[in-house]
């Protein structure tokens, strides 16, 4: 068996994340696991004996897992490295909500132990691939785990777009933008724009207009086999495409953005088989006071499903 290796990606702008990275590196190294760190982070972390790699997808190749210390933004950055290699991401939340993270800061030591002993599951999350066209030619390609958003670039003017589903025009919107999201992204930008929360195991794409001036401008849930297109009308102001809030492309008038299911998923390492409902309750602090659960008939076996925070 070859040498075990873990890539550690850190939000080095947070002192707590740097301290956590130092602890993770120390404990993984003590367990005989080689630790990789992207160049640009090694100096800030200040650890010796790490394998410094260029900040490209090659850094994650043949690694067992990518441990991510930060918030969802840091995990989305790490997904750029992990997705091409198919390496699972394990997020430790040092931010705010941290919806994509699997562990919290107080669980750091136990999380490292789970990595050392390989006690985690891996699930795949749907992504979207994005192609930008203009005048019949391709001007850019990118992808997203959460969402691709066509937004107006000029605050004072409305964006004019036409949405298309599977080659057929759907509606013209005067709006601030349009979010095309995955189920994973349903709790991110799409949620803020008024879209529905979609459970991760549901394969679908969301189309959510932002502040649209139109009679028909409700959020839409379409098939994962569909192709969604948003065309920026020729007489509208310049627009901008944002993917996961990280990758951006300018969209001149007449540009067309096509979104379809991604060819490669993102793999997430899971430590706990927590129901998504419980994750929603915990992350958003939802009130569940008064919940009684399934009512059992007299004489039936005791037990039943535990509620949020009660055993799962």
Automatic annotation (TrEMBL):
Q: Which GO terms describe its biological process?
A: NAD+ metabolic process; NADP+ biosynthetic process
Annotated Gene Ontology cellular component terms: cytoplasm
What name does the UniProt record give this protein? NAD kinase
A GO molecular function term, named singly, is: ATP binding
Per its UniProt record, what PANTHER family does this chain match? NAD KINASE
| NCBIfam families per the UniProt record, alphabetical | PRK03372.1 (NF002892)
Tell me, in a sentence or two, what this protein's role is. Answer: Involved in the regulation of the intracellular balance of NAD and NADP, and is a key enzyme in the biosynthesis of NADP. Catalyzes specifically the phosphorylation on 2'-hydroxyl of the adenosine moiety of NAD to yield NADP.
Residues where NAD(+) binds: 72-73, 77, 146-147, 157, 176, 187-192
Q: What is the first-listed, main subcellular location in coarse terms?
A: cytoplasm
Please state the Enzyme Commission number of this protein.
2.7.1.23
Question: Which is one Pfam family of this protein?
Answer: NAD_kinase_C
Q: Which reaction does it catalyse?
A: NAD(+) + ATP = ADP + NADP(+) + H(+)
- Which domain of life, per UniProt? Bacteria
UniProt cross-references to InterPro entries, sorted A to Z: ATP-NAD_kinase_N (IPR017438), ATP-NAD_kinase_PpnK-typ_C (IPR017437), NAD/diacylglycerol_kinase_sf (IPR016064), NADK (IPR002504)
Classification via SUPFAM superfamilies: NAD kinase/diacylglycerol kinase-like
Quote the subcellular location field of this record.
Cytoplasm
Say if the entry is tagged with keyword NADP.
yes
Gly residues: compositionally biased ranges: 301-312
What family is this protein classified in?
Belongs to the NAD kinase family.
Which Gene3D superfamilies does this chain map to?
Probable inorganic polyphosphate/atp-NAD kinase, domain 1 (3.40.50.10330), Probable inorganic polyphosphate/atp-NAD kinase, domain 2 (2.60.200.30)
Q: Where is this region: Disordered?
A: 292-312
**Required co-factors:** a divalent metal cation
Tell me the active site.
72
């Amino acid at each position: 068996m070859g040498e075990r290796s873990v890539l550690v990606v850190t939000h080095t702008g947070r002192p707590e994340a740097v301290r956590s990275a130092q602890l993770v590196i120390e404990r993984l190294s003590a367990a005989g696991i080689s630790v990789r760190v992207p160049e640009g982070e090694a100096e800030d972390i200040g650890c010796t004996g790490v394998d410094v790699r260029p900040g490209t997808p090659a850094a994650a190749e043949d690694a067992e897992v990518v441990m991510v210390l930060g918030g969802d933004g840091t995990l989305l950055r790490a997904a750029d490295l992990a997705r091409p290699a198919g390496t699972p991401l394990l997020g430790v939340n040092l931010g705010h909500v941290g919806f994509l993270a699997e562990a919290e800061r107080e669980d750091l030591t136990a999380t490292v132990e789970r990595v050392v002993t390989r006690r985690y599951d891996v699930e795949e999350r749907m992504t979207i691939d994005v192609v930008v066209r203009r005048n019949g030619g391709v001007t850019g390609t990118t992808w997203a785990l959460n969402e691709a958003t066509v937004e107006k670039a000029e605050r004072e003017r409305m964006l004019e777009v036409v949405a298309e589903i599977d080659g057929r025009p759907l509606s013209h919107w005067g709006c601030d933008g349009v979010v095309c999201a995955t189920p994973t992204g349903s709790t991110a930008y799409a949620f803020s724009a008024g879209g529905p929360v979609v459970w991760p195991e549901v394969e679908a794409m969301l189309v959510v207009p932002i502040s649209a001036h139109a009679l028909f401008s409700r959020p839409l849930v379409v098939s994962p086999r569909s192709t969604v297109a948003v065309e920026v009308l020729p007489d509208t102001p310049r627009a901008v495409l944002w993917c996961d809030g990280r990758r951006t492309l300018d969209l001149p008038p007449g540009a067309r953005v096509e979104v379809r299911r991604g060819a490669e998923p993102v793999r997430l390492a899971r430590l706990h088989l927590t129901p998504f409902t419980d994750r929603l309750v915990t992350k958003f602090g939802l009130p569940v006071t008064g919940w009684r659960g399934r009512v059992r008939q007299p004489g039936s076996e005791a037990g039943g499903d535990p509620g949020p925070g009660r055993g799962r």
